[in-house]
Amino acid sequence: MSMVTLKDIAKVAGVSYATVSRALSGSSEIGEDTRKRILKLCEEMGYTPNAVARSMVMKRTNILGLIVASLDNPFMSELTTNIEIYARRCGYNLMVCNSSYDVDLEKEVFTLLVGRQVDGIILLPISSESYESLKSLTAQVPTVFISENLQDLPEDYVAVDNRQGMRIATEYLYSLGHRKILYFGCRSHSVTHRLRLDGYRQACESLGIEADVLYSPFSRSSHEAGYQLADEYFSGEHAHTAMLCATDSLAIGVMRAAFEHNISIPDQLSLMGFDNISFAALPPINLTSIDQPKQQMATAAVDLLLDRIAKPEAGHTSVIVPPSLVERRSAKQLSE
Amino acid sequence: MSMVTLKDIAKVAGVSYATVSRALSGSSEIGEDTRKRILKLCEEMGYTPNAVARSMVMKRTNILGLIVASLDNPFMSELTTNIEIYARRCGYNLMVCNSSYDVDLEKEVFTLLVGRQVDGIILLPISSESYESLKSLTAQVPTVFISENLQDLPEDYVAVDNRQGMRIATEYLYSLGHRKILYFGCRSHSVTHRLRLDGYRQACESLGIEADVLYSPFSRSSHEAGYQLADEYFSGEHAHTAMLCATDSLAIGVMRAAFEHNISIPDQLSLMGFDNISFAALPPINLTSIDQPKQQMATAAVDLLLDRIAKPEAGHTSVIVPPSLVERRSAKQLSE
DNA sequence: CTGAAAGCGCTAACAG
DNA sequence: CTGTTAGCGCTTTCAG
Question: What is the mean pLDDT of chain B?
Fold first, then answer.
């Protein structure tokens, strides 16, 4: 289709194709007049540079790989959107693969992307265990992990300050008058989730209130998990005035259980989530949450990756971004 | 990093690198013993074929471009997920670009993808107008439009049967006893939306009930649009017992307005949407809707595109997939 | 300032 | 069955 090549336009212009290449690369030395003439010709002949050929010789594709558990997850798709837009602004295109929450597949697509000669890879919500399985691969190509806190592992990553986020949440509920706050957790194996729980515990301690934790046996955070856990909880005694969920998804499940148990939110129970996924803002949900600044995380991840590509041997870096409270209507002042 | 090339392993194996190439491509004639020896060597030396080099000579990249208005939109991200997974199964990787609802950007990224030598492009919710702006480009590379009905335009596309979907919705509400059904529309310029409206009107006519339509002035379907429209509507007289929204997003906005006007859904008003986005299933929303079979649409789009790549000159095809009713709890039997 | 030529890693005839 | 060779379209020394 776009079969016009450098050679073609060189022939028409009556110059060598090296000259045309120079005209296009903009740089170096070339006569202003010839450049203009050539550029015009390219336009006329509908020439589009062949990025594949260029990659071949440049030994870099200007393509970034993105591996994501599932784009269906609103948190991940928000991140992806921002990553793509920013990467493109930096001159990179994005090749996206779903790992479908499968560690083996994740490994497989990683290898695929390496074969594609991507300049770097961004790995998006991956449980911290899968770091183990990818260890040998991440050495082959610049990689940054995003949204999962890898702590002291020798990798680049960007994550929100999870501990701080839960501290903020707990303190907020406290400021609303709540003293009996239940924490609803999940995925106990994940560092990220351990940090969140930590933040809650720390805050409780310094506030002088009791920490109370319920953990979902489900391996993945979902509203089903939240529903089951809450349904059980509401069926027994429940003296807490507020509930703090490890994720928004969990909180949404809690909403359903609360509804079925005729517990009104926020009148009888204040509820909070974490992540501030787009769902949370929907009118019928209106969930007070802790925001992960997705845009900032996205640009930080791309910047970090480009840095690493520029200096493959530099030491590992992590970027921790600040969370923030988003007040909506699922939590309110405790009435006496 | 992965600097091992065919040549390297040829040298070690003591064969010409054409032989290695053959061993890897699996095909043609080559001694079983040498093949095995070579394959083992590749493994040992950690060889990964360079897809860029291969693309260069094959004149095909096995990359598909995907242009999407915004991955943030759950409908689009669901489609994208399915497209990526299926495309990969077919041996293609996906390069994704957001057009951010901007016709110029859309054109820009299209050109970018062409320069990337993608084998084909899938264009995802694009208003039918943008077809005009892309006309000259779609001729350059196999392209399929997805989710927007292009009617008689000379393009390949896959879309749901929008008219039929709204007919089903209307008939369903009718079967629930509703006779005064209000249609909430938007984006009157879009063929897709015109077809939906059409389906509603047709159904009303054959059911012998009156068609009543309210159109949002907003150019994009969103819950804000739905909220505004519904807020206004509820503020005036409102004798309808059911409301049929052109999209789920619109319906979610209606939910908020209803809540604020103390109108209970579904007790006082039945509500339906269209698209069956993932939101709709969330417990606090629980919206009865018309499903667009995203997975089927995704695979159909990829299949269509691969067909077109195989036969660039074949006539244009469209695939219309069937919608289906998803009963949840926002619509119910009209009590007398 | 411009042309000639080499080569990126791989595939595909074409010979042997 | 295996080796030789010629490119794919482009960038980049190195000469003019």
Answer: 91
